[in-house]
Write a structure and sequence with these properties.
Layout: E1 6-9, H1 16-24, E2 51-56, H2 61-77, E3 82-87, H3 96-105, E4 112-113, E5 115-116, H4 122-126, H5 134-139, H6 148-153, E6 155-156, E7 159-160, E8 162-164, E9 168-169, E10 172-176, H7 177-182, H8 193-205, H9 217-230, H10 233-240, H11 250-263, H12 275-284, E11 289-291, H13 296-302, E12 311-315, E13 322-326, E14 328-331, H14 339-350, H15 352-362, H16 378-389, E15 392-395, H17 405-421, H18 424-437, E16 444-447
Parallel strand pairs: 2-3, 2-4, 13-15
Antiparallel strand pairs: 1-16, 5-14, 6-7, 8-14, 9-13, 10-11, 10-12
Helix pairs in contact: 2-13, 2-15, 9-11, 9-17, 11-18, 17-18
The structure holds beta-D-galactopyranose.
The site of beta-D-galactopyranose has 14 residues, from loops.
């Protein structure tokens, strides 16, 4: 429950990755002057150039339209600033985070880069590579408009280090409505895995070869994560707190068995598809179902599909009343070249205007509670309503928040292997022994019920 949501930061030894970052960290760059600095002398550093570099992984049709709308808000406010966007292809940031780590370690952090709230920023925080932004939160009055659950995920040791731009929901099934209608399938009845698989059987019998469409490795891990959530909030909480350590854990093996069955309805070329390629196959009607976060809504918009008429959604079976969280944030890295514009960017990201320009296109709901709901389409209006009454909210592991980064990466590898060998025992062994191996990295203990 939201009221009970708290994050307990447990002081244990620093993460392995943190140690690595700290030991390799470049010397602290000298402070950069502001644009109003006096004329430079031979000894003073160069004046701040009026530019802003922004890294993100929003490269699909819907994502690009959304970030362009946000950049436009910034550009309108600060017309003299040269904005350089660096989009890095690769959903969920799996590719970009490696690039960012290299830049930050080299003392060359971009002025702004996309990241996920929660664990993903922890190694940077632990290594002293982020500036606290409590003042910005205060000046912008953010505490009054950002829900508690999100506020906690933007903090380390009780201080703010990031601002959220959105709240994405991850436990969503997207469906092609005419395919379901044609086959007499009522999506509101698909609340259990049995009912869902029975619908898949029906579609198969009617000639839909692969009723479920899936993409590359991380999207398989994304689907598996939702199955883990469908095992119940207690199990999910134990999982993200590093407490599932027995390979014969009945819920873990059950989740893998369900995923094995799920895979029997999945397109065999999944490893070659991006997440949006897989979503497009629901748009074209090649497949009926796709488990994906609600950034998928942006692709349905681009394809000019109408929610409720051409496509629809339901909560992943077994997760009704739960809201799986993926929260995109920006932060203020230490030593950036354009600190003034970096802070301006954070303000635009956190603003009502910025969020109401970005999120209606992106598919997410605003991180702010004072969003102008009339700007959001019917899917998002239903998501806003669901968020308000959600019984449980759970932070996504695949999307950087719920568990240490190394686990997120390993999970994707293990699940990717599982999609080909379908070996439940092997996957359960691999997942639990890795959890034990990195036990010291579980420095955040979640209480999400
Ligand atoms: C998520 C990200 C979303 C969306 C998605 C696919 O991790 O936070 O905003 O972009 O990946 O790339």
């Amino acid at each position: 429950m939201r009221g009970k949501w708290k994050v307990l930061l447990v002081l244990v030894s620093l993460l392995a990755i943190t140690a690595m970052i700290a030991s390799c960290a470049a010397p602290t760059p000298s402070p950069t002057p502001t644009a109003t600095s006096p004329t430079p002398t031979p000894t003073s550093p160069p004046p701040e150039v009026n530019a802003l570099t922004v890294y993100h992984w929003w490269t699909s049709g819907g994502e690009k339209a959304a970030i362009d709308a946000l950049v436009k808000v910034f550009a309108t406010k600060y017309p003299d600033v040269a904005i350089m966007q660096t989009p890095v292809t690769g959903g969920a940031g799996f590719t970009m985070m490696g690039i960012i780590k290299t830049l930050v370690l080299a003392g060359d952090a971009p002025d702004a880069f996309q990241m996920h709230a929660g664990y993903e920023g922890k190694p940077y925080f632990d290594a002293g590579l982020l500036d606290p932004i409590d003042d910005l939160w205060k000046e912008e009055g953010l505490e009054a408009v950002i829900p508690e659950v999100v506020r906690h995920m933007c903090q380390f040791d009780g201080h703010y280090y990031s601002v959220p731009v959105n709240i994405h929901r991850v436990n969503v099934v997207w469906y092609n409505k005419s395919l379901l209608d044609k086959n007499g399938i009522d999506p509101t009845t698909l609340t259990t895995w049995d009912a869902f698989f029975a619908a898949c059987d029906k579609l198969k019998a009617a000639g839909v070869q692969y009723p479920i469409q899936m993409g590359e490795a991380w999207t398989a891990a994304h689907a598996f994560e939702q199955i883990v959530a469908s095992m119940g909030i207690d199990f999910y909480q134990d999982w993200i707190n590093g407490k599932i350590t027995a390979a014969d854990d009945p819920k873990l093996t059950q989740a893998l068995e369900i995923f094995k069955k799920y895979l029997s309805y999945v397109n065999p070329d999944h490893a070659a598809l991006t997440w949006d390629d897989a979503t497009k196959r629901i748009i074209t009607g090649e497949g009926a179902f796709n488990i994906m976060g609600d950034w998928a809504n942006g692709e349905f918009y681009v394809a000019k599909m109408t929610y409720g008429e051409d496509y629809g959604t339901f909560a992943v079976p077994g997760t009704e009343g739960m809201y799986g969280l993926c929260i995109d944030v920006f932060q203020h890295p230490k030593g950036v070249k354009h600190p003034t514009n970096s802070l301006r960017w954070l303000k635009v990201v956190a603003s009502k205007e910025g969020q109401d320009a970005f999120n209606p296109i992106k598919g997410s709901i605003a991180a702010r509670t004072d969003a102008d709901i009339s700007k959001y389409g019917p899917y998002q209006q239903s998501a806003i309503a669901d968020f308000k009454v959600a019984k449980y909210m759970f932070p996504s592991v695949v999307h950087g928040s719920g568990a240490p980064e190394s686990f997120k990466v390993k999970l994707s590898d293990i699940i990717s292997g599982f999609t080909t060998d379908l070996d439940v025992n092997k996957a359960a062994q691999a997942l639990t022994s890795y959890t034990k191996e990195i036990s010291g990295e579980y420095t955040i203990q979640w209480s999400i019920k």
